[in-house]
Amino acid sequence: MTQFSDALPQLSREVFLTDSGLETELIYNQGVDLQQFAAFPLLDDAEGMRRLRSYFAGHAAVAARADVGFVLESVTWRANSDWGALLGYDTDALDRVNRKAIDLLVEVRAERAKTNRPYPISGCLGPRDDGYAPGMRMAAEASHAYHRPQIATFADTQADLITAMTLAYPRHLDVPCGASDADGLVGRS
Fold first, then answer.
1. What CA–CA distance (Å, rounded) separates 102 from 158?
2. SS (H, E, C) the chain
3. pTM, whole model, 2 decimals?
């Protein structure tokens, strides 16, 4: 059951923090070798889970000290079919890690959100290709088809919202006129 999907608190005047560059922190400050710049494989490793939990707990502690809300963003920026295939993850494995990423944030929220401020959970969608220098561009229909499995997984979790990051050509990602909640593309901001 989501806590905030019907009324996202960050759309109010309240101040929110979010994390600050997970992959950069892991690679440059902790010396973690992230293949394909992907953090989601850490969900399959006990030490990786410890690192992720610590990362989010530290950021949540900053939010608590500042008495502001905190958007918990999943580590799934590269947990889509093209990047997943490069890392040995098939469709079922990607579904599993996308769910596990949200479950981790549910746990962090339960452990760390001891304030009266909201901590919404966001399922993160990332680019199919290099987000900063895409070698290909998808039409809206192709983009919808490509991202639909990850969106469907998030819709079946406690994620309150879905955030798309580093998509270099957003005009191609508009939801087509006439899309409905049944399409799984609208209705969850």
1. 7
2. CCCCCCCCHHHCCCCEEECCCHHHHHHHHCCCCCHHHCCHHHHHCHHHHHHHHHHHHHHHHHHHHHCCEEEEECCCCCCCHHHHHHCCCCHHHHHHHHHHHHHHHHHHHHHHCCCCCCCCEEEEECCCCCCCCCCCCCCHHHHHHHHHHHHHHHHCCCCCEEEECCCCCHHHHCCCCCCCHHHCCCCCC
3. 0.85
Domain with 121 in it: what CATH number? 3.20.20.330
Q: How much is the average pLDDT of 15-37? A: 93
Quick one: pLDDT at residue 62?
A: 92
Spatial CB neighbours of 27, under 8 Å, sequence gap ≥ 6 = 33, 34, 37
Domain of 122 in residue numbering reads as 15-171
Calpha distance 167→128 (Å, rounded): 8
Q: How many domains does the chain have?
A: 1
CB atoms within 10 A of CB 55: 20
